[in-house]
Amino acid sequence: MGDGSKTMTSLELVSLGRDATALCTTLRSEPVSATNWSHQVLDIMTAQDLARRALSLFLRFAEQPARARPEGRQALVHLGRVAESVQVVSGELTAALARKADNERVAALRNAKPVFVGPSPAQRVAVAAGLLAKVPAECAEGAKWVSAAERLQAARDRTASTSTPRRR
């Protein structure tokens, strides 16, 4: 891979962190009860896109020689944590959507008394927002390790390509 694609991993990781911040801001700005179905579904789809991007970055970096370096292994840890966090966010938002639908179903029944088991939709969204708030720092840390691993690997590759083979 050329140097451009190597820096792209770090840049894309930072971009993912910014997008996580934007989703976190959106989640914290509207109460779940006031959010319509389409907004909730779009938030879920955004979280799923973040997860897809995080996994794609993980896979792309895992296939690079730099991943075998200690710095590369540390980068993979951070990439994995980012992917895990946004996957959990997606799950929490989906569970909030399902719970909100069930609450509305129960509320529509005339004589039924609601039975609430587990976290409310608002609690689930709060958990998701809390996780998202940590993603940018994890992305920045991952980008730092990715850059270090790629830089050291590139230096090693340059040294290996410029050295002459020894005769026996």
Structure description:
The protein is an all-alpha fold and 168 residues long. The chain is built from four helices and no strands. The radius of gyration is 22 Å and the shape is elongated. The relative contact order is 0.18. The model is unreliable at 1-6 (pLDDT under 50).
SSE blueprint:
Elements: H1 3-29, H2 37-62, H3 70-108, H4 121-162
Helix pairs in contact: 1-2, 1-4, 2-3, 3-4
Can you give me a brief rundown of this structure?
By secondary structure, the protein is mostly helical. The protein is 80% helix and 0% strand.
The strand count comes to 0
Provide the helix percentage.
over 70%
Query: Taking all residues together, what is the mean pLDDT?
Result: 89
Cα end-to-end separation: 32 Å
Largest sheet: none
Structural class: mainly alpha
Radius of gyration: 22 Å
Uncertain segments: 1-6
Fraction in beta strands: under 5%
Q: Give the SSE string.
A: HHHH
Treating each run of at least 4 consecutive H or I residues as one helix, how many helices? 4
> Can you tell me the overall shape?
elongated
Based on the model shown, name its key terms.
168 residues; mainly alpha; 4 helices; elongated
